[in-house]
Each structure stands twice: as structure tokens, then as C-alpha cells.
């Protein structure tokens, strides 16, 4: 049984969806099958309806568009968006913290080797200290 209030709410939602569908282009740039596969890879995902799949795909497209527009807005040199621009933008924006591991700052192999050597130096000195204690 539905109350009149619930029925009116449902009708309003349907009308809103109809308006949104007219405003938003119903075509997607990203493949729906790929988005569905990614969504299914999550352990807690239940049934994925076509509506949910479409909304997730459109949301992802809009997120990518906003991310690239914001990063491009910070390009100063040759008006070409490069990986370093995206990386710098992600590093500076607190609300994009979840992307830090996906879009990390590039470092040179030489610098990475130095970091590893420093890490190895610390771990070997710790093991020497441990040996002295015993």
C-alpha cells in the first residue's frame, strides 16, 4: 500500500528524471560494459540496474571532464595538458586526496633509487642496533 504522499513523491521523481534525461545527452563516451565490470568488482555491489549504470557512467564522465578542465586551467606554458599538470592538481587539491595513489607525482629513477638506498640504510642500521642489544 502507498500513501498519497508517497505516490506524489514518486510522480515528482519520475518527472524530474524525465526532465534530466532531456537535458543530459543520453549517449555515453565511456563503455557501459566496462563501467559495469568495474562496479561488479566491488564486493558489496548488489544488482546493477541499467539506470544506476547510466548514472554512474555519466557521473564518471562529468568527474573526468571537471578534473581535466581544472587541471588545464592551471597550464601556463604551451596550452597542452600533460600528466604532470593532472598530478600537480591532484597533489594540491585536498578533496582529490583519494587519487594520490592513482595519479602520483612522477619521480626520476635516480631519485627513486636514492629513496630506496636511504630506506635500506635505515633498516640495516636498525638490525645492527638490535644485534647490539642482544
From TrEMBL:
InterPro entries: CBFA_NFYB_domain (IPR003958), Histone-fold (IPR009072), Transcr_DNA_Rep_Reg (IPR050568)
Signal peptide start-end: 1-21
Keyword flag Nucleus: yes
Transcription factor CBF/NF-Y/archaeal histone domain ranges (all copies): 28-88
Key words, A-Z: Nucleus, Signal
Domain of life (superkingdom): Eukaryota
Cellular component terms (Gene Ontology): CHRAC
Pfam families recorded: CBFD_NFYB_HMF (PF00808)
GO biological process terms on file: chromatin remodeling; DNA-templated DNA replication
Keyword field contains Nucleus: yes
Subcellular localization: Nucleus
GO molecular function: protein heterodimerization activity
Protein name: CHRAC1 protein
Species in which this protein is naturally found: Fopius arisanus
Classification of source organism: Eukaryota, Metazoa, Ecdysozoa, Arthropoda, Hexapoda
Amino acid at each position: 500500500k502507498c500513501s498519497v504522499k508517497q505516490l506524489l513523491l514518486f510522480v515528482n521523481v519520475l518527472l524530474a528524471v524525465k526532465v534530466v534525461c532531456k537535458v543530459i545527452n543520453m549517449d555515453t563516451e565511456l563503455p557501459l560494459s566496462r563501467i559495469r565490470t568495474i562496479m561488479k568488482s566491488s564486493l558489496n555491489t548488489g544488482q546493477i540496474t541499467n539506470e544506476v549504470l547510466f548514472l554512474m557512467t555519466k557521473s564518471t564522465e562529468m568527474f573526468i571532464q571537471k578534473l581535466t578542465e581544472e587541471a588545464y586551467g592551471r597550464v601556463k606554458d604551451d596550452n597542452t595538458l600533460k600528466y604532470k599538470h593532472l598530478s600537480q592538481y591532484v597533489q594540491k587539491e585536498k578533496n582529490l586526496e583519494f587519487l594520490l595513489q592513482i595519479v602520483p607525482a612522477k619521480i626520476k629513477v635516480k631519485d627513486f633509487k636514492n629513496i630506496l638506498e636511504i630506506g635500506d640504510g635505515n633498516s640495516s642500521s636498525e638490525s645492527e642496533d638490535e644485534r647490539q642489544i642482544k
